[in-house]
Amino acid sequence: MVAAVNADLFVSAVVDRIQDVLYKRVHNFKRQQLEVLTRAVVLYARHQKAVQRSIIALVCVGLIDRLRRVVKLAKSKRQPNKDANDTGPRRGAQLDKQFFENMRRLVAIVIPGLLSKEFGMLVAHTVLLVVRTFLSVAVAALDGQIVSSLVRLRGREFLLGIAKWMGMAVPATLTNSLLGYVQTTLAIRFRQNLTEHVHTKYLANNTYYSVGNLDDRIKNADQLIAVDVAKFANSLAEIYSNLAKPTLDAFVYNVQLARSLGVESLFGIMVIIQMSMGMLRVLAPPFGQLVAQEQRLEGDFYFAHSRLIEHAEEIALYRGHEAEKRTITRRYMRLVRHVNRIFRLNVFYGMLEDFIVKYFWGAAGLVACAAPVFAERLPGAQKAVAVLQGENILGDRTRDFITNRRLLLSGSDALGRMMYSYREIVELAGYAERVTDLLTVLDDVSAGNFVKTRVGKSAEKSLESGDKPDIIAQRGQVVESTDDVEFIDVPIVSPNGDVLVKQLSFHVKPGRHLLIVGPNGCGKSSMFRILGGLWPVYGGTLRKPSMSQIFYIPQRPYLPIGTLRDQIIYPDTAEDMERKGVSDASLQAILGVVQLGSVVEREGGWDAVKPWRDALSGGDKQRIAMARLFYHRPQYAIMDECTSAVSMDVEKIMYTHATQLGITLLTVSHRQSLWQYHNWILQYDGQGGYMFSELDPERRIALMEEKQEIEQELSLIRDMEARLNELEAQVL
User: Fold this and answer.
1) Following DSSP, what letter does each residue of 89-155 receive, concatenated?
2) H/E element holding 305?
3) Are the beta carbons of 332 and 324 closer than 8 angstroms?
C-alpha cells in the first residue's frame, strides 16, 4: 500500500511539473505574439499613409485592367466572324460578345434616343436610386446614434433620434414607392416599343405567312411575340435596378466604411469577397443556356396545344385524341424533366450562394467591425484609452460598431444582390437570344432569305445535284404590269424544293377568264401562291398588276373579328368605306346579289359582333366572300373552289355578276357548270406538263358527254365479255 501511495504521489508530481512547464511556455508564446502584434501596429502607424496609397494604387490598377478587358470585348464584338464556314447554331445563351451584340440591338429598340421618354424615365430612376442610397447611409448613422444614446442613458437624445427616424421614413417610403412605379412603367414602355417594332416587321409584306410556311427556324412565333418579348422587357427593367442600386450602394457604403475602419480593413474584406465571387462564378450552372432551352420547350408545348385547337374537328372525327395526348404528354414531360434539372442545380448553387453571401461575408464584416475595439487592448493603445472617460468610450464604441455593422450588412446585402443578379443576367441573355433570333429571322424572311429543311424526294435530288445551284436559292423577276398577268418560263416549285412544273408560260388579259384544272398536287394552288406573292418566283419572269388589283377567294373564307360590316369590307375599315363613298345601303344591295339580304336583320344589324366562323354556315361564308369581292371590285379574282357549298343557281348569279363588273376570273374548279363563264383553260397533267389554250365550253361539254357515253359502252362490253366467258366455261 505504501508503494502504491508513493507511486500516486510521483505521478501527481510529474503531472504538476508538466503543467507548470506548459503554462510557462504558453504564457511566453502569448507574450511573444502580443509583442509581435504590437510591433506590427507601431510599424503600420509609422507608414500608414504609404500603405493606404499602395492599396489605392493596387485597386486603381485592377479597375483599369478590368476596363481594358471590357473595351477589348466591345471592339471584338464589332469584328466579323473569322470562320466564314461556321454557320452552326450557338449552344445556348452565354455571357459573351454575342450577348452584348444582342443587347446593343435590343436596347436601341426599347430606348430610341437620348430625348425619348424612356431615357428620361431611366434618368429619373437613377436619381431615385441615388436618393435612396444616401437615405440608407443617413439611417445607418442615425441608428448608431440612437443606440449610443440608449447605452449612455440619455433619454432626450434617444427621443430626438426616434423623431428623426420617423421623419426620415416619409421620404424613404416615398422613394421606394416611386422606384417601383418607375420600374413597372419602364417595363411596359420597353415591351410596347419592342412589340411595335416586331409587329412592324412581322405584319408587313406577308412576313407572318413566310415565317411559318417558307422558313423552318421558328415554329412558334406567336409565343415569342406574346410571351418572350414581355419576359425580356420585364427582365431588362428589373436588371437595371438590381444592378445599378447594389453597385451604387456598394460604392457609397465602401467610402463610408473606409473612413470608419480604414482602407486596409476594407481592402481585406474586398479581397475575400472577390475570391468567393470568383469561386461562385466557376461553380455557377449555365443558367442562360438552361433558360433559353426552357423557353424553347415551353414553345413546343404551347405549339402542340395550339395545333390541337386548330384541328380539333378533324382530330375528333378521326378519334385521334389518344395520339394527340401522347404527343402533348411527350412534349410536356420533356419540359418537366428540364425544369426539374434546373431545380436540382439550384439546390446546390443556392445553398453555396446563401452560405457565402449571408454568413461568410457577414462573419468577415463582424471581424472588421470588432478590429478597432480589440485594437484598444494593445499595450500602445491602453494608455490613451485610460485618459478618456469610461462612459464616453462605451457610447462611442457602441455608436461606431452599430453604424459600421449596419453599413457592412447593407454593403453585404448589396454585394449579395449583385451576385444574385448574375443569375438574372444569364436569364436575360436567354430571353435576349430568343427575341434576337426572332428579329433575325424576320429580317431574313423580309429580304427573301429562307432556311427550309429538305425532305423526301427533294432532299434526295439536292444530294444528287452536288455543286449545281439549288433551285430554291434562285430568284426570278417580278414586273408590275398595268392590267395583264403573264408567266414567262416560271417554274412551279414548292418551298420544300419539289418541282411541280419546270417552266410555266401563259398570258391572261382583262376579259380572258381562265379555268384551271388538273389532278391534286399538280401545282394549281402553288401557282396562285406565286401569283399572290406568298411564294417567291424561283425563275423566269412574272408580270402582274399590283396586289390591290388581285383578290383571292379560298374554299374556306377567312372571317375576321369584328362586326358584320367588317366581314364584307375586310380588310378595309369603316373609315375606308366612307372615303370610297360606299354606304350600308350599297352593302345591302351587294348582299342581295348573293341572295343573302336577310342576314343583316337575322344577325342583329351591321354593328353586330359575333364569332362569325361559327355563326354562319358554309354556304353563307362563301356568299360573304363573294360579297367581299363585289365590294372591292379588283381587276382579277382568284377563285379556288369558292362556290362548292352553294347551289348552282346562286353560283350562276355570282359568276354572272362578277363578269358584269369587269372582273377577270381565274378559277380552280372541277364543276362543269362553271365552264361557260371561262374562255381559256390551263390544264395540268400531273406529270409536270400542262396545256394552255382557248376554251369552247359547249364543245368541251359535248366531248365530255361523248367520252362518258363511250366509257359506259366499253364497260358494258367488258361485262358482256366476262359473262360470255362464264357461259363458255359452263358449257364445256
Assistant:
1) PPSS--SSHHHHHHHHHHHHHHS--TTSHHHHHHHHHHHHHHHHHHHHHHHHHHHHHHHHHHHTT-H
2) helix 287-310
3) no
Contact indicator for 531, 485 with CB cutoff of 8 Å: yes
Identify the burial level of 526 via C-beta atoms within 10 angstroms of its C-beta, where 0-12 means exposed, 13-18 middle and 19 or more buried.
buried
Kindly report the backbone phi and psi dihedral angles of residue 407, in degrees, each rounded to the nearest multiple of 5, phi listed first: -65, -40
Q: What is the mean pLDDT of residues 503-511?
A: 92
Kindly state the cell numbers that stand for 619. Answer: 354556304
- Rounded CA-CA distance 623/594 in Å is 6
Please give the C-alpha separations between residue 324 and each of 12, 179, 294, 305, 306, in angstroms, as whole numbers. 88, 47, 22, 9, 12
Mean pLDDT of 527-532: 88
Report the chain's terminal Cα–Cα distance, integer Å.
Answer: 142
Rg of the Cα atoms in the chain: 41
- How far apart CA 538 and CA 126 sit, in angstroms, is 54
The C-alpha cell 414553345 sits at 299
Percentages helix, strand, coil for the chain, rounded to the nearest 5? 70, 10, 20
Query: In the chain, how many H helices and how many E strands?
Result: 25, 10
Q: What is the pLDDT of residues 154-166, one digit of tens each?
A: 777 778 877 887 8
Please state the φ and ψ torsions of residue 502, each to the nearest 5 degrees.
Answer: -65, -45
pTM of the model: 0.66
